[in-house]
Amino acid sequence: MSLKLPLSIRNARLADIKNPIDAGSGAGEIRFYTLPLPATTGAAITSQTLLATCALSDPCGTISNAVLSFDVISDDLAADATGTVAFGRFVDSDGNFVADGDVGLSGSDAVFIFNTLSFVAGGAVQITSAAITEGNG
Predict the structure, then answer these.
(1) Residue 97 DSSP SS3
(2) How many CB atoms lie within 10 A of CB 20?
């Protein structure tokens, strides 16, 4: 049997993600990297290549009905490197780790949705959509 949580707890769990992203003196960011995925949650970035960085709004978004919907996310107008994006890392304005999220194309249930997962150095990177859903209601 799966765990069933009330809406208030699911919203509170999302606040535990949103609040650290909004911590610090400015807007948080999402940094997009290539494989390999970090071995453990929050592990340091080592051999992964930073492909792009997108700034979040401050505050980053709103929570309603167990969904954290992100407000405007700035495009990265010039990607740092060429490669296939594998995950995005949320950091606060001081660069502190908050969470890693998966990436995907339209129709997937990934946190970050793109038109393409192939980034090109110097090219624009635009997130089509981004949201975190706290399921099991």
Answers:
(1) strand
(2) 17
CA distance 114 to 37: 18
Report the side by side order of strands in the sheet with 29-33.
Answer: 50-55, 29-33, 87-91, 97-105, 112-114, 129-133, 67-70, 61-64
15-68 pLDDT per residue, tens: 999 999 999 899 999 999 999 999 999 999 999 999 999 999 999 999 999 999
Nearest to 57 by CA among 45, 47, 36, 72: 72
| Domains of the chain, each with CATH number or no CATH | 7-37+48-133 (2.60.40)
- Judged on CB neighbours under 10 Å (0-12, 13-18, 19+), 127 is buried
Which pTM does this prediction carry?
0.95
Measure the CA dihedral 41/94/78/48, to 10°: -30
